[in-house]
Amino acid sequence: MALPGGRHLDSITLPGQRLHLMQVDSVQRWMEDLKLMTECECMCVLQAKPISLEDDAQSDLILAGGPGPGDPLQLLLKRGWVISTELRRIGQKLAQDRWARVHSMSVRLTCHARSMVSEYSAVSRSSSQEMGQIEKLLMEKCSELSSVTERCLQVENEHVLKSMKACVSETLSMLGQHFGQLLELALTREVQVSAGWASGKGSCLAGSLKSALVRKIDASDNIYTTESTTGNLFSLTQEGAPLCRIIAKEGGVVALFKVCRQDSFRCLYPQALRTLASICCVEEGVHQLEKVDGVLCLANILTDDSHSEATRAEAAAVVAQVTSPHLPVTQHLSSFLESMEEIVTALVKLCQEASSGEVFLLASAALANITFFDTMACEMLLQLNAIRVLLEACSDKQRVDTPYTRDQIVTILANMSVLEQCASDIIQENGVQLIMGMLSEKPRSGTPAEVAACERVQQKAAVTLARLSRDPDVAREAVRLSCMSRLIELCRSPSERNSSDAVLVACLAALRRLAGVCPEGLQDSDFQQLVQPRLVDSFLLCSNMEESFV
């Protein structure tokens, strides 16, 4: 069930964002949870509600650690996360007609909602009549949900239950709406106060955060004041997507680009751009960027050599964010097409001149996303000799030293390999040997993120090889470098590909393409199992294959 309130606490995982709700010490998290767990159980007992003994009861009790004293922003985020999760779980149980669980979770939801309202009232700097009204509506709907679900427990007639289920669903939906409205009002107020934009004590939400911020930047020639304001804003963006949406809607993008258009604030450009990249992880941020001609501003910064490398790198990060294929809104950035040639040229130059791995990663990530954004970008990269720039960088450990960076490079190569002219450039720069090396990408630390990056490198390397092997010269070079042996190993040995199905499919496709050009490079058993059958049959054979340790 889609609940309006749930939207306010979803998140988009981005490099550099802190996940306060999850990434904490487990023992500390448990100790913090005790307060909420005890409170919840006590309130259940006081209301004479039995605590469920179902097997999955514990898995449904999802709680977040209590916020620090006097920290209303963290209180809202953590309590709100709990309530959002409970709303989603109640919807799931309702769809399964598990009325006992729906009722017990409704009681628990009421406890959490009451706790959030009372705790926030105790620590917040101010309140408003609008918030008070929504708080009242929220608690009324919580009580209504508890009452109606309790009545459902006494009903045995299926037709009556069906009609009551529609009533519960409607109540749950309205509860989610009130919760979302209350959370957004409270978060907006805390954003204003935390960033220093509120118009004064007791001003609540009457004054627009947008006008306050823009007015503050307009009126201030003090670089330290602007730096402090921008720094506070960046800290808020690290709290997740909900605050990024609020900041975007309230004019944060407008204000930051105003900073980036003033020469007197040049030393603040990196900080302002870094904050913009965080805000643009949500669609609202990209929409605002489009409205203020943000792409043109980014293009001007990237093409101006008088700016520091750090400034241009942060501008590249914003470009990477707004062209992310994970954001559907980026496909409608009409202004980007107008500046794409200048941006692509500047990014290739930044890759070539990068003094560190971080700068190269940001620039190459922007290029990789742009190749998804528009096919013309691949032709531009070909004309700019980007293949040579990227392949040369692979031998420079100062610029390319992690699987994350190689993931960006192989993404660009894979997207460029659809062009027929790309094959000759790859051979000329010994690119086949580099792709062969990427098929053996291994994680150093074993962290989930690095393992996933290595899988992507292997998969895209196989895809690139399959596409390039349309050219017989590339196929013969790949066979000469024993690429077929490595592809067979990846297909037959799950540990070599970390049991990734995506890598397996890509390797089977590449192997079949090479076998079509040089069948003599395969043994009969490999041909009969990996090439001759249908792709799905070979996939099932390899995915179920038990590795031999003999």
TrEMBL record:
GO terms for cellular component: apical cortex. It holds the Pfam family Insc_C. Residues 22-68 form the Protein inscuteable homologue LGN-binding domain. Keywords: Cytoplasm, Developmental protein, Differentiation, Neurogenesis. The keyword Cytoplasm applies. Gene3D superfamilies: Inscuteable LGN-binding domain, Leucine-rich Repeat Variant. The keyword Zinc-finger does not apply. Residues 79-550 form the Protein inscuteable homologue C-terminal domain. It is found in: Cytoplasm, Cell cortex. GO terms for molecular function: cytoskeletal anchor activity. GO terms for biological process: apical protein localization; asymmetric cell division; cell differentiation; establishment of mitotic spindle orientation; nervous system development; regulation of asymmetric cell division. Its main location: cytoplasm. May function as an adapter linking the Par3 complex to the GPSM1/GPSM2 complex. Involved in spindle orientation during mitosis. May regulate cell proliferation and differentiation in the developing nervous system. May play a role in the asymmetric division of fibroblasts and participate in the process of stratification of the squamous epithelium. PANTHER family: INSCUTEABLE, PROTEIN INSCUTEABLE HOMOLOG. This is Protein inscuteable homolog. It comes from Saimiri boliviensis boliviensis.
